[in-house]
Prior knowledge:
By secondary structure, the chain is an alpha/beta fold. Helices cover 31% and strands 25% of the residues.
Amino acid sequence: MDKFVIEGGKPLSGTVQVSGAKNASLPLLSASLLSGGIFKLYNTPRLNDVITMLKLLEHLGVEYSFSGSTVELNTAGITHTDAPYEWVKKMRASIYVLGPLLSRFGQAKVSLPGGCAWGPRPVDLHISGLKKMGAEISIENGYIIATCKRLHGTKINFDHSSVGATGNLMMAAALAQGTTILNNAAMEPEITNLARFLTLMGARINGIGTPILEIEGVDALQPAEIHTIPDRIEAGTLLIAAAMTRSTITISGCNDIHLYSVLAKLQDAGAKLNYTDDTITIDAQELELKTVDISTGPFPGFPTDMQAQWIALMTLAGGVSTITDTIYLDRFSHVPELNRLGANIIVHDNSATVRGVSKLTGAKVMSTDLRASASLVLAGLAAEGITEVLRVYHLDRGYEKLESKLASLGAGITRVSGSEY
Length: 421
Ligand code: EPZ
């Protein structure tokens, strides 16, 4: 298993391009199951999770090529409608094939995702929505077994926002008989990217980008091409790297509107930001880091996927800050590792209280999940001395060549393959 060795304290400078969004790419890939033919997905990030999804699609009968950042899919020869545990245990987002397979083929057998590093992540909203659309669903031996003649339109109200359930049910509704309303739908940019893709395929969707989606089912969809939106979480992570190392950098190929809540908090913390159409420049050279409390929420609120990175930043702020996660109540496995680097963080229920310290000091730390590992890399960039971040396979799930991007900006970071852990 690989590790990162980081020599902290080096300032960053220059420009780096962000990759396509993991959390857009995964549903976009799944949507190709809704029609036979040739699809092209541009700006696809080369991530372990994307490879896992491509291998699952291949298991279902999809032929694919992945050249540069373009994925080409041929979905004319679907031979299976099952997503085995072997795939789903590696990536919860495999659940995204459930809606398309059921809606197009009338059947699907998808393993229930297990828990993840920070606890259970249910799929009850996915299942209850498909049942309301007419699916017969049973849970047998850890699998969701779903059948239907043809799904029918209905009204679905989400008690709370769910990105995955919104995406899955929107894809299912695209081929249903009649109109489906998704009330309290997720508005994340990745869901908007998916809705636009479905529209290009011939789906009829009103309310894109709002919490009320109206999908009028059609009898068939056609293949299409789409550009994956930039990864707002990678962009936010790189901006915090600059803030923690008191650097000035520019990130390109990103859309500031997708990240406005994080940018606003960075400015509250004292960072200077400038924007063009597709770049964000952060000037943190003279930054006197102020404490800023955050509470995560559905888009356009502060994203839970930036919570760990924000805690890392606040470890060096002048004072006490509170970080509350309202989406995942126990997503704090990064805290003990950050404390090993000299941070002073206490977690109570779904809130972390961070008492800023004057410095962090390098140590060996263990990645536990994707965004936790990102927070450890950020802390290592600012810590005095050497930090080793172990088990970076977690990070490779959602960041494309992060160490190369950071090194191109001047960071002292190298990947060491095959480490003892
Ligand atoms: C997506 O996960 C993202 N993953 C997550 O990013 C992100 O943290 C999450 O949305 C929230 O923004 C992908 O897009 C592949 P949810 P998802 O359904 O769809 C509960 C990362 O780091 N819930 O919006 O699984 C759930 O437990 C990953 O890139 C139910 O109760 O998240 C959570 O508390 C991590 N029942 C809340 O809703 C359900 O049926 C939001 O989950 C579904 C979800």
